[in-house]
Request: fold
Amino acid sequence: MLFNKLISLTAVLCVSAASLVDAVAIDNKACDTNFDPETKALMEADFQARLANQTASLVSDDGTVSNFANFLLDPFDVYFHVISKDESEKGGNLSDETIDKQIQVLKDAFSGTGIRFNHVKTTRTVNPEWFKKAGLKNKPLTAHMKRALHEGGSADLNIWSISFDADKDFWGSGLIGYSSFPTYAWSEPLLDGVMIDYRTVPGGKHKNRDRGHLLVHEVGHWFGLYHTFEGGCDDKIGDGIDDTPAQKSSTNGCPKSRNTCKDREGEDPIHNYMDYSDDRCTNEFTIGQMLRMTSMIRTYRPNWSSQKA
Reply:
């Protein structure tokens, strides 16, 4: 019954792709990852079926991961597009050293998942209008910028760093990043990628998000992960991951512990990259998230190595 619905699912995904983006706010209130229940249910039924078929090759008989590091994808090529108002680092022109540190943070965060990255190119564009006004508030301008700079295909990660100044009033709390979901690779390939506030890189000026973990979070979405608090306590599907406990709302700061769904098993996954905890607090993906990402890659961003290392 499920696979008889896949043709209609494809049509729904192509129509809905424009809404499949994520927005992270400074005070954790603004988010634009929205799915209607029917679309989400169809997506998750398909993804869970794919995960079930792949689990046997990744998980041993005792339920532990056999070796994610040996279940290798080809490296994902990374194109980092630096947008600035002038040629100074204060004006958004991130140094090569800073970009290298950010890419290393990304590599380290995904190091146990079998997902690897290869930074192949940095582009630099001095454009005050793009730097200040690009974002969710000004979608036509943002689309123009992305189309002008995007490189590669569905398995190539494009990153744009801007100021998000225009979105601070738009969201009321301060947007600092968002990502396209994997289905964007089908419907809007030149808009596919991740946007981050240039102040969130390692050593940046953004309070509590200055270690480069925002990019890790957004790339998690790029590989198909929801927030850990998706659906709250009552949504049966939630984030589609069995080993991330239900979570009513996003985490603010870095508490010692938190349990917002007391009738559900487990405390909030406050150390997970897909929560909104401060950078100093986040340090993990779960096995379930790793399985979901590999399934999403097979489906939307095919980049599979024919041989293990």
Q: What stands out?
A: Confidence is low (pLDDT under 50) at residues 1-20. DSSP finds nine helices and six strands in the chain. The longest strand covers residues 117-126. The radius of gyration is 19 Å.
